[in-house]
User: Fold this.
Amino acid sequence: MTVSVEATVTALSQPPTKAVGPATETDRDELALADQAFDFVRQFHTEQPGAGDPAQRIREVLAEIRETGTYRHTAEELAYGAKLAWRNAARCIGRLYWNSLVVRDFRHVTDPAGMAEQCVEHLRIATNGGKIRPVITVFAPDAPGRPAPRLLNQQLVRYAGYPREDGGCTGDPAGLELAARARAAGWTGGQGRFDVLPLMIQQSPADAPHWYQVPEDVVMEVPLVHPDHAWFADLGLRWYAVPAISDMMLEIGGISYPAAPFNGWYMGTEIGARNLVDAERYDMLGEVAARLGLDTSSPRTMWRDRAMIEINIAVLHSFDAAGVTMADHHTESDRFLRHIAKEMRQGRETPADWSWIVPPVSGSLTPVYHRYYDQVDPNTRPAFLLREPW
Ligand code: ARG
Assistant:
């Protein structure tokens, strides 16, 4: 069933609940919100035909917006909206399973301690003993003039970085800034290469961030070993099991959820070709090449390429040995093309960003390399968006 424009017009022409006067910025905001709510509710009802009468729901939402300046998603709208945000994520190669996302509705939890507790619970549920489940936990949305609390972490689990006296970094350079903020807030981090950062939660722009150490028993980690090179274990490398992005804004029908951590499972190359390899991250190529005894005198010996492949072999082997879900880039590429075909059968496009979809090693060995994708429209919603600073 489609919703007519008349439904909107009827609702908008009902007697105003507010004092009559010149139109204001608030009116403009409400109109913009109503517009986005309209699109979302219509999409929700188109794709979920059992969800009742869309026209009635649209009138309800419009009335609520006029009354309160915002509106509240039903639990079903929230769950489906979060799944749609994943389905719309043009940079994600793992979208085949978008509809199986576990959505945890914690919109009522707004105190930092309660949020930290639910982030920990999120990790427990997502980790699932190594059989990783895609999960999102949705905390309170922003309301007009009342921004909701935020997680300052980029991911629920990430490693700290500490500046060294020689100008280098111990740990993950990507965790330098948060480690410094956490220490300023009173966290007493170690000096290790793989110290899990505390959760940092800020209730409002004026509020100092609160920090919470994630209990060790919920942070599953995998020590990295190589199937053919015993010395690889001596590098002392490890990585955590669950990549849970926590610094993006989930936007559904004009409502912004700034704290909505979500996770899938890792694809090996994220760790083996980027986190451990990028010069701005753990920068391990030189050490691995030396241990492999490669000739590093010229880039043309491809020592970097060879070292990187061995790291990737170690990452996949180690996660398998530890019984932790991890995709490889060959399998995940095939799945993504299956996803596109499946969507096409539903009459839907799959916008994708080629430069993010193609894996950072062996691109042309995967089928995702050899084609183009539907254009990405930056206005597509629901979506996971980069969060504006407060
Ligand atoms: N690339 C990021 C990392 O290495 C994680 C991004 C999300 N990845 C995922 N497989 N869901 O930590």
